[in-house]
Write a structure and sequence with these properties.
By secondary structure, the protein is mainly alpha-helical. The protein is built from 13 helices and no strands. The protein has one domain. The radius of gyration is 18 Å and the shape is globular. The longest helix is centred in the N-terminal third of the chain and has 37 residues. α8 packs antiparallel against α12 and α10 runs antiparallel to α11. It is about 70% helix and about 0% strand.
Length: about 210
């Protein structure tokens, strides 16, 4: 195969991968939008729908939903948060290391959470808890992305947090499991960091929609 044919083949493969990524992410967002607009409000856009799905996925969703939404919308979302939450497949399509070319946190989103002291404390604690995983090449590379760090911070507030962390990083080393469990317990025993979680959710949603 000559160089021009090789370049053409590579371009075709790249375009095909891009289409698959767009289709996977777009399909996930379409599903989220469908059930959220039917349950909460028909006028909601993609960004608002993904925010609600992320907040509904938390172990303690009520305070965050009430902080983010109007009273009426929050009441509907809290009552149905189990059905509004992201499915594992949707989370993977939006945030997983295997999802292809992931979006990056836009400057405005990155600066908002970067200046949040509570968020930075969670990043530091998460880094310490993942110390063995972050020695691995793939996981270390994923962790350098702002989107991955924000996804991991939020994932630790979700059910099945270790599976969600593995989605974002491409795997979690077993030796980190006890530290992650301890951190999740610490989170559950502390007051809900409503403002920090809301800012993180807004940054993630704006980046994938």
């Amino acid at each position: 195969m000559d160089v021009f044919a090789l370049q053409a083949a590579m371009q075709h493969a790249t375009e095909k991968l891009g289409a698959m990524v767009i289709t996977g992410r777009g399909k996930a967002i379409a599903g989220i939008r469908s059930r959220t607009t039917q349950t909460v409000a028909s006028w909601l856009g993609d960004d608002e729908c993904v925010k609600i799905a992320l907040a509904s996925s938390l172990r303690a969703p009520a305070e965050v939903l009430e902080f983010m939404l109007s009273r009426q919308a929050a009441k509907k979302a809290v009552a149905r948060c189990a059905s509004l939450a992201l499915t594992p497949d949707e989370f993977q399509a939006l945030f997983a290391a295997t999802a292809g070319t992931l979006p990056v946190l836009a400057n405005r989103n990155s600066s908002t959470i970067a200046s949040n002291g509570t968020f930075q404390q969670h990043v530091q604690k998460t880094t310490a808890a993942l110390r063995c995983s972050l020695l691995e090449t793939q996981q270390r590379a994923a962790w350098t992305r702002g989107l991955s760090q924000a996804s991991c911070v939020l994932a630790l507030h979700m059910h099945d947090y270790e599976d969600r962390l593995a989605d974002v990083l491409g795997g979690v080393v077993r030796a980190d499991s006890r530290r992650l469990e301890d951190l999740a317990t610490e989170i559950d025993e502390s007051s809900v960091q409503t403002a920090m979680l809301s800012a993180t959710i807004s940054a993630l949603s704006a980046s994938v929609t």
